[in-house]
Design brief:
The structure is a single chain. The chain is α+β, with helices and mostly antiparallel strands. It is built from 6 helices and 4 strands; from the N terminus they run H-E-E-H-E-E-H-H-H-H. Strands 1-4 form a two-stranded antiparallel sheet. A two-stranded antiparallel ribbon has the order 2-3. Helix 3 runs antiparallel to helix 4. The two termini are 23 Å apart.
C-alpha cells in the first residue's frame, strides 16, 4: 500500500497578502494537496446501527431520523476490530485563474472556497469522508477519529 501523508493546511479567514509578489510566485506557491488514510468497515461482519445524535453532529453529518449506518461488529477476519483495510480520503485544490484572482484580491474564505468548487471541482476532505460513510465504506466513528485530529 502506498504511504500516505497528511499535510495540515489551515485556511486563513482572509487569503494572504500577495499583491507585492509576481503572478508566477502566486501560481507556484498555492497549489495544495492533502491526503489521509481512513480505516474501512469490515465487509464480513457489517451490522446496521443508528449512531448517537452527538456522533453525527461531531462528524458533520446531518441527522436523518431512521437512517441506518454500517459498522463492523468484529470478527476473525478483522481481528475483532470491525475494520479491515484502509482507504484514502483526499482534498485537492488546483489553482486556476479564478482562484489566482481571489488570492491577488485578498478574497475572504467563503468567496475563495466557492471559487475553488467552481474552478477545480474542489471537494473538502470532510465531505469526501462523509460520502464514504453514506456509501457504507467507512463509519461515523472513523470520520470522527481521523478528521477531528486535524
Amino acid at each position: 500500500m502506498a504511504n500516505m501523508s497528511l499535510e495540515k493546511i489551515k485556511m486563513p479567514e482572509q487569503a494572504p497578502d500577495v499583491r507585492n509578489k509576481n503572478f508566477e510566485e502566486v501560481a507556484m506557491g498555492y497549489t495544495a494537496e492533502m491526503a489521509m488514510e481512513e480505516a474501512t468497515r469490515c465487509p464480513n461482519c457489517k451490522t446496521q446501527i443508528q449512531p448517537p445524535k452527538k456522533a453525527l453532529e461531531m462528524a458533520g453529518i446531518p441527522e436523518n431520523p431512521g437512517k441506518l449506518y454500517w459498522q463492523g461488529a468484529g470478527c476473525d477476519q478483522c481481528f475483532h476490530s470491525g475494520y479491515r483495510g484502509r482507504i484514502g480520503v483526499f482534498e485537492v485544490m488546483l489553482i486556476q485563474e479564478e482562484l489566482r484572482r481571489c488570492i491577488l484580491e485578498g478574497a475572504d474564505r467563503t468567496r475563495f472556497l466557492e471559487a475553488a468548487r467552481r474552478a477545480s471541482q474542489y471537494v473538502p476532505m470532510l465531505e469526501h469522508a462523509q460520502k464514504l460513510v453514506e456509501e457504507g465504506v467507512s463509519t461515523v466513528d472513523e470520520v470522527i477519529r481521523t478528521l477531528l485530529a486535524l
